[in-house]
Amino acid sequence: MKTIIHKAESRGFANHGWLQANHSFSFAGYFDKEKVQFGALRVLNDDVIAPKMGFGTHPHNNMEIITIPLSGVLRHRDSMHNEWQSVLPGEVQIMSAGTGVEHSEINGSNTEHLSLFQIWVIPNKEDVTPRYDQKSFDAEGRKNKLQTLVSSIDGTHEGSLKIHQDALISRIDLDKGQTFEYQLKSEDHGVYIMTIFGKHSINENELNTRDAMGISDTSSFKIETKEDSGLLFIEVPLT
User: Fold this and answer.
1) Quercetin 2,3-dioxygenase C-terminal cupin domain location, by residue (predicted)?
2) Are strands 179-183 and 168-174 parallel, antiparallel or unpaired?
3) What's the whole-model pTM score?
């Protein structure tokens, strides 16, 4: 088993006033040659956006973009839709940029901050027709069990959003004192685990809120919780 550990405080950080951004991988003005990507996972940003503020219209192409609001209200509009759409905590949004799409994302609240994860996954097919989707996932569906949020558009996994990559994005909320074994889809894959909250250990490595760990060259690994913990798993091909 190969492992890498990214402690929360080691992430890139940018304070734009209206945006507090933590970067797990090199992004915008932050560059670390040791943190460019993890296999097909290119970006994992942990953003907090001030009320009424956000990202103006900007383009993307040939990237699978996944957004997971944690608190607040995200408002989204893109060149495939004329109207603003709300994405709430408990929901997940995907956008296959493909041949090209423009979009805007803003905090839909006048008073509350918006907290979210934004994930970019390099696709296995380029120049596809752009597409958008979003789905609500019940928190009870990840209580001490794995809840798959995103999977391959070429796969047969039911109930998840789809992207153009042989990837799995999942969440779990584990009670204190629980042991959970994660089974990888393929030994050619790796898993990047982000600790949303809590404290747990993997292979005697203790991880706290917003600490992350990349695992590869194994078929499975075990997690033991020291506190109630929420985890995000991003499993991707490494080549």
Assistant:
1) 149-236
2) unpaired
3) 0.97
CA distances from 90 to 46, 141, 164, 201 (A): 16, 11, 22, 25
pLDDT in tens, 131-170: 999 999 999 999 999 999 999 999 988 999 999 999 999 9
Residues 192 and 194: their CA atoms lie apart, in Å, by 7
% helix / strand / coil in the chain, to the nearest 5?
A: 5, 55, 40
Q: If we measure between CA atoms, which residue out of 78, 171, 157, 73 comes closest to residue 119?
A: 171
Q: Is 60 annotated as a binding residue?
A: yes
Q: Tell me the CB-side half-sphere exposure of residue 111, using CA atoms within 13 A.
A: 0
The annotation status of 105 as a binding-site residue, yes or no, is yes
Residue positions counted in the chain: 239
Residue pLDDT, tens place only, 204-219: 999 999 999 999 999 9
Q: Is 58 annotated as a binding residue?
A: yes
Place of tokens 């907090």: 48
- Domains of the chain listed by start with CATH number: 2-237 (2.60.120.10)
Tell me the average pLDDT across 25-38.
Answer: 96
- Checking DSSP bridges between strand 85-87 and strand 41-49, what pairing results, if any? unpaired
Residue 176 three-state SS:
coil
CA distances from 73 to 64, 98, 116, 157 (A): 21, 26, 10, 28
Q: Would you say 94 and 161 are in contact if contact means Cβ atoms under 8 Å apart? A: yes
CA distance 157 to 222: 23
Give me 67's structure tokens. Answer: 């957004």
